[in-house]
Amino acid sequence: MQRRAEIDDSTESARTYLKALLGDDTAAELREAFLDAAPRVVEFLENDPDIEFEWQAFPEYYEAPGRTARGRSFVPLPIAAERLGALAALVRPPVDRDRAGLSHDPSAPLAQGRALIGRLALAFTNTGRGDVRTGTALTSLIVEDGRVVGVEAQGPDGPVRLRARHGVLLAAGGFESSAALRAERSVPGSAERTMAPDGAATGDAITAAVAVGAATGNLDQAWFCPGLATPDGRAAFTLGFRGGLIVDGTGGRFANESLPYDRMGREMVAVDDRGPMHLIFDSKSKGLPAIAVPPAVPEEHLAAGTWVKADTLDELAAKIGVPADALAASVERFNGFAAKGVDEDFHRGEDPYDRYFTGGGHGLVAVDEGPFYAARMVVSDLGTKGGLRIDPDARVLDASDRPIPGLYAAGNTTASFTGPVYPGPGVPIGTGMAFAYRAVQAMASEEK
Ligand SMILES: Cc1cc2nc3c(=O)[nH]c(=O)nc-3n(C[C@H](O)[C@H](O)[C@H](O)COP(=O)(O)OP(=O)(O)OC[C@H]3O[C@@H](n4cnc5c(N)ncnc54)[C@H](O)[C@@H]3O)c2cc1C
Question: What is the CATH number of domain 135-222+382-445?
């Protein structure tokens, strides 16, 4: 895809980038397995007539050796719902509508993540070698003579036992929706504020594998992001700040708001004990000066109190419970940076990522036109990234680092080799795809 888009890049350069971010430690084997599989899985999938991708410019998340100027990410091309036939009904609505409980036109083309899900479901179904069952939730693994040979699940008509011919690949997401597991593992944020869709990501696959002896790692980690607190008590994934400043409970700014979302999420985690955080903006921005998924409806936020509005900054400070002099000083300093076009404290607008969503601008816009707004910000996440430990072929390991025969895992069900780092766009899904591919290849090549 990069070659088609005339992007000059290499595996070596991607290796340099990942090494610079992650070090060259025990996760190196998994990093190498990913680097090896990534181009092959793309080529394999693109050989299928139902799967088409294209490269998309989106800067990686760190300035480090090996970073490419415009990123290494790609997206599936949209696909018409008619082409999917009955499979289209299996794909959930777009996340912004699904989350807000809004209706969705099922005949609309599928784009982005939905296009990937739809295309994969179509390609798989067309092989004629299996079927897709929804509403069938894994409850436990069946082990015979030390080998995982199938699963027990709760189906729409009651419990079912499903035998596996080659092995079981667990890819049932993370545990971000489980308040109990989050608390047990001290994952920052909360089950209410995660972006997981309703009814998913309760850690079932991890629990089932642990019950047969699987080892886990990284259990306190997630793909973090800033969340805009929403009137329903949840959060909206927020990125692409084109104005405004975020202050913590002391009224002070604490980070470059335009940082890649996982990095900003982690900055928020670090100050979460200082009291509620708020995005401060003014009337010029005409609504939230950022992208929120689902989008923010100002009237609803103001009615619910997740946003407050005031004619003066002093009044605003009183409403959000921060010292008025501290808020005034933060805004004044920020406005000074806006006038100069230089953020002397946190360097906002200096990195290509910061400028990606702002049309090339630095995103430093003076907050000086009342009425003023404060929108409550919270720590959110796109899913947990700790879970089952795997080897380079995605075999699930036990506490002695031995593969559990017949058991494989990929995606957020596993302990990501990226640990506390989100290197760049597409890493969650990309690593999930690469290890799922390796698992299936390993299963296929195992002697029966
Ligand atoms: C708004 C938003 C935007 C994002 N954008 C990107 C992006 O651009 N690129 C990127 O790489 N990542 C992105 N992410 C993150 C990415 O979507 C997730 O990290 C990724 O989907 C995780 O994949 P997974 O296969 O591990 O789990 P999931 O996608 O969570 O899939 C797990 C599946 O397992 C099912 N399941 C759960 N429990 C059971 C059970 N007991 N039995 C059977 N099935 C079960 C679930 O219903 C679900 O269908 C985004 C996330 C959000 C919220």
Answer: 3.50.50.60
